[in-house]
Amino acid sequence: MKNNVITMTDKLKTDLSHMIEEHNEILTALNNLIEIAKIESKTEFVQFAEKTQVTCKD
What we know:
The structure is a single chain. The chain is mostly helical and 58 residues long. The protein has one domain (16-57). The protein has helices at residues 2-39, 43-57.
């Protein structure tokens, strides 16, 4: 069990920078969605993206 945890932790450490990069790409995409949805008066998309951003930032 202990070795499994160490192995998993090592993998997470290795993948962390890529995970953070993907996270930032998602936030950028959500910002773009909000911007375009506001221009097109798509309030349901704005609300969805804003709620998703809150989840991503926590």
